[in-house]
Each structure stands twice: as structure tokens, then as C-alpha cells.
Design a protein that fits this description.
- The complex is a heterodimer.
- Chain A is an alpha/beta fold.
- Chain A has 15 helices and 19 strands.
- In chain A, helix 2 packs antiparallel against helix 4.
- Chain B has a single domain, classed as Aldolase class I (TIM Barrel), CATH 3.20.20.
- By secondary structure, chain B is of the alpha/beta class.
- Chain B contains 13 helices and eight strands.
- Classes of the chains: A alpha/beta, B alpha/beta.
Amino acid sequence: MPAKSKRPTARELLFGDLWEFDPAPESAPAHIESRYGLFIGGRMVEPKSKRHFNSISPRDGSVLSRIAHANAADVDAAYRAAAAAFRPWSRLPGHERGKYLFRIARLLQDRAREFAVAESLDGGKPIRESRDFDLPVAAAHFFYHAGWADKLAYVAPGRSLAPLGVIGQVIPWNFPLLMLAWKIAPALATGNTVVIKPAETTSITAMKFASILQDAGLPPGVVNIVTGAGDTGAAVVNHPLAAKIAFTGSTEVGKSIQHALAGTGKRLTLELGGKAANIVFDDAPPDQAVEGIINGIFFNQGHVCCAGSRLLVQEDIADEIVARLKRRMAVLRVGDPLDKNTDVGAINSKEQLARIRSLVKSGVDEGAVIHQCACRLPAKGYYFPPTLFTGVTQSQRIAREEIFGPVLSILTFRTPDEAVEKANNTAYGLSAGVWTDKGSRILMMASRLKAGVVWANTYNKFDPSSPFGGYKESGFGREGGKHGLLDYALLVPR
Amino acid sequence: MAITRPLTLRRLLDEVGPVDAVGLDERVAKYTTRSIKRDSKVRGLRMAVSMVDLTTLEGKDTPGKVASLCRKALRPHDAADTPQVAAVCVYPSMVRHAVGHVRGTGVRVASVATAFPSGQTPLKTRLAEVKQAVTDGADEIDMVIRRGAFLAGRLDEVRDEIAAVVDACGNAVLKVILETSELETPDHIRAASFLAMQVLRDGDFIKTSTGKTSSNATLANNQVMIDAIRDHYLATGTRIGMKPAGGIRTAKQALHYLVAVKETLGDEWLHPSRYRFGASSLLNDLLRQLETQRGGAYPAPWSFSEDSGGY
């Protein structure tokens, strides 16, 4: 019977095990070979270096495959194949190039499940994300650019686009297949050929992608994939046949690439780190803002260059927002990336895990207050619990350096000016988020934030037609949309 | 400085915060990707059965139809371990018939009242209807709010009427139907939830819809309401229950709603005293999925007795 009395005690919700979910492992086979060569000239070839290294699954630390470690001679062979393929490829009519891109997109869709499992095994991201985000968006990039291939005369008024030549591309480990799609699709649509190097820890889906290129009948040499470590990347960047280098990765490496390319005449686009401010005003829709903050920082274990890693919350609602965040974090499911109910998976590598741990320790040492999910982590593999810091100030390392992990630093502000000031007080400028119910404030903030992307009342939204890229030490050049095409082409008279 | 101004929608929303419809849809879409397998599926399905308010609300209802509904409520399926449903839900004139069948069994009798589904009669009439249903033995009353008054900005009036119905209920549990499809926006639904909860008692419910309009319960409006229940509980300590009604036809949908409850309100709401499904055809799909889990194959639809809906 309903009672009129109210209980005036401290209350919390009970997120217990009354109805616990059973394990729901994704069972589709990933079809990962025990050993991969290099994809050069349309064929899988053994590396001239005769060296291979282990690809480790962060899920449990097991060896998934042996990956070729390309040396300078291998990279040279890839560039020669790409250079040989350039003339016929760039002279194909646009609609013919478009056909190949459409074919690649459809083949990716056909094999989406297999690729998603491989991506989760190799990189540690939850299967829910590789299945619902990485694969569909990667296919969408090929579809989108397939559409552009025969419309290059209409990108810029009075001008058409001409290809640059052979493009050298180096991509990171956080979205292995998606970054590959972001790089390859616009390069091919504009008539360039490609030498691409996936990240050392996540080469498997790139090598699987080679089989899609073969199935699509892409002419040999148009795309060449070389795997390896930093020295391989350096060989790709410094090869004399490269007309342009496109790099996504850390600011440190990006700077050294820019240094190396100075004076060579090669074009360069860089998409580097970030320390995005996610700004929550006191009129924001509370539950959706909290959901957006969670999505902004814990998506892909925080291995996102545009992650909303600095939460700027208006001081009068800070306590409430933090309490809501903690409650939401209590129901995040951390663990096996292949379980369909996992929200936060494995940290990509042992090295990254060590880096996250050391930065989190610096936060504690510098006096910030830490809160972590009380979740049980798997015994094997590389895992880190979702973490938030309160009482963070602008001068602490956790507020300045990119952590690239599931760690949120919470700062407060009192006025919109202060929010802008704090948000822009960083070496980076890749992205930002604004949460408010007031439309005029969104427009005001968007125009004052020095960030390549500003999301309003949402976060981490990507579309092939929307350019993505940064300010300041987050790099230059755009990927996606018309702007992205222009970075892979010369403007020529129509 | 005490200023008494009438409560307006704006002031209420300022206090409880707005809802962003796009973010809301994104949140609830995640519930539908949860994969509920094996034991957890069986437990979820059984929990859902125990939360069903088995409903018949038609002009052609007869004591015979209600009798058959009550038998189904008490023994949904031949399998001995199938739980009873939470309640039967009928029109006020059918309460005394239903009471005769379920008294002392644990299955409760709920009655819609207050000029269901429109609420468009004088308050005196509506209160008399509630009192009659309670006198006839209803354990629970499902009332409708006057959406017209709410949309016209007469929030005090809506709240005072709910308070009057609470008084008329006596010991009966009250469920307040917001009729979400007529309130239309998530902001309105959130505001109306708080408005009702201001005068509800621990153990009373808020409910999405009558089932008599074009759109009924959705994961999104369920979410707005359970978010409000959570906020109200944390602020006041009063535990309000939730009842989505109409439109939940499959076991899979029901499990998605339960995931939402698990991840928003926690274990204490995963109980028939705090969460209900207003449904009729849902029950047989739940039973069918339970049988499938038991036997490994889908039984034919006719192997389950049909006692509600459809006729």
C-alpha cells in the first residue's frame, strides 16, 4: 500500500546483479591468417627485410598473427608500383574510378561482420562499436567518395581537380580500418595512387582489406599496403616519389614529419592530437549532456583524438553533473571486447596502458580527486577502468596533455567568456562540444572556439560529407567533404 | 520574500531541466543493442510476465470476457513455474466481476477511472467514479490527467486534481496516465511527470498512455519518465513506479524496456511493485519465448490460450 511518509535519508540507486546479463560473445569468425606479407603491386609479397613481428590482441595478450616489418627496400618497391599505376589510373574516366570505389564499399558491407570481429580482436574496441560505427562509417566513406569521382569538375567554381601523384599515408591504431578508409577513398577518387602504412599494433584489418581490393579488381599498384614500425613510417614519409604525405597520429611525430618535409615540395596534411573541451552550461538538458559526456570520453576507450577529455561545467551545476556522471558510469560494462554488451573494451597496447597509468598517477599526485568505476576487469589483457578527475585546474598535466584513454578531467567555469578562455587555453584545437538549451549561445560559442569541429548538444558525430581537421598543434588540412578532396588535388582550369 | 505565482511550464522546466529529443533517441537506441541470452533471457522474460497488467478496455467487455481474462492472469500457461501476472486492468463497471475471480490470489485488480480515456468530465464525476471503483474492490486506479488543462498552462489545476484523486483512492495504488502522445514533446512529458510526482505517494505510478491514441509507449518516452522518477527519488526519497502501456507487443521489446529500467533506476525497480507493462498481446509472446528457451523450438501460436485482445 502506498504510504504518505517520506524517507529523508541519503539515497543512492542500487545497480546490482538482480538481473545480470549472461556473456554474449560475437561468434562470427574473423578469418585472420597466421602470417601476412606486404600488399605491393596487387599481390601479397614476402618482405625483402625477411622480418616479421607479432600482432598482439589486447583482449587477452595472445598472438593473433605475424606481421611483416617492411624496410626501406620494401617501401621503395611499393612506391615504384604506385608510380607505375599512376598514369593509367589517373587517366581513367571518373565514373570508372567511381565503379571501383562503389565495389570496395559494397564488399566492405558484405564482409562487415567478419571485419568487425577482426577489428575488435586486433584493437580491443568493443564489438558494438566496430559493428555499429567503424564498419558502417568506413563503407560510407567509400560510397561518398565514389560519388565524387566523376564530379571533380564541380568541386570548385570554374576549376577542375587534377591528381597529385603518389600519396604516402601513415595512419594510427585507434580506428585502423576507418582511418584507412578516410585516407584511401579521397585519394583514389581524385585519381591518385597510394602507399599506406597502418599502425604497428593494428595492421590486420588493413591486410584483410587488401583482399577486398583484389576482389574488387582494383588495378595493381593503385593501393599498396606496407606494414611495420616507426622506421617503416619514416621510409614512407621520406620517399622521393611521394607527392604528398597524409598523416594521422601524435603531435610529436607530426612535428618531425613536417620538419623532414620542409623544402621538399611535398604536400602535407596532419591530423594530430587533441584535448577537447566539452562545455556544459547550466541550462543544458542534464541527462542528454551526461550521455554526451560519457560518449565523448569513453567512446573507443578514449582512444579518440577528438575525445571530450576536458569537461568544462558551469560551476552552479558542477556537483549535480558529477553525481549524474558517476551514476551513469556505474552501469558502463567494461571487459571483453567481443562481448556484445561491452561498452568499454581493452586498451590498445601495453605501452598505451602504461602511459595512461602514469598520467593518471600524475593527476593524483598533483592533487586532483579521482573516481573510478567499481568494475571487475578481466585478469588477462590490457584494461583500464573508466576514470574521472574532479578539482582539476588548468595547470595540471591531466588538463593539458592528451591522455588518449578513458580518463575525464573535470574543470568548472562561471561565465561564457571564462569557458571560451579555458577551452582555447590549450596547444590543441581539434574539436569541442557545447551543451545548452539556448540556440544563440551555441552560435556564439561555435564562432569563438578555436577548434576544427564544434558539436552542439551532441558529440563524436562523423559523416563523410563533413570536413574534419584541426587548429594549432592538432594539425592542418581537412578530411571529408569538399575540403578533404581539395587536399588531394591540384586546382586546374576546367 | 514569499511570492506565490501560479506554476508555469517554463518555471517547472527551469527547475527540473529540459530534455533534448535527439540525445534521448540516441540513449534509448543503445538499449536495443543489448544482447540478452540464455539464463538472463529466461529471467528477464519471467520478470516481464510478473509485471504485466493484463488489460481489456473495450465497450464490448462483458463479465464473461473479464472472467476469461482473470483465468489467464492467474494461470498464463500450463507450465507450472510460469508466474502470475501482476494485475488485471478493466473498466470500473467490470471491477466487481474481476474481484470475484482474483480475490486472495495475489493478482490485483486495476481499474481505469476519471472518465478514461479523455478525462473530460467534471472533477466531481471523476472522483465519484474513482470512489465507486475502490468501493467495488479495485486495488489500483489508473487515472488520466486533463491534457487540455496542462497544454493550456493550468498546471496547478492539473496537480490539484491529481491530489484530489490521490485522496479518493484511499489505500488503492494510483497510476497517473500522462497520455504522452497528446503531450507530444519530451519537455512536456518530463514536466508532467514531475507535476504528478509532487502529489503522489511512495508506491504510486506514472504511466505513459491510455492505448486509445495513435501512438503509445516508446522507449524514448519511457526513458523521459524513468529519468524523472530517478531524479524525484534522489531528491525526495519517494519511490514512484512506472508503467509503459500500449504498443509493447513482443518479448524483445519488453526486454529492452527492462534493460532501460536496470540501467536507469537499478535493481529496486525491477519488481512488479515498481514497474508494470500495460499490455495484452505481449503476454503470449513472452510465454512463447519462454517455451522456446525451454524446448529449443518455437511452439505454434495456438498452443497458448488466447484470452485478451483480438476478440
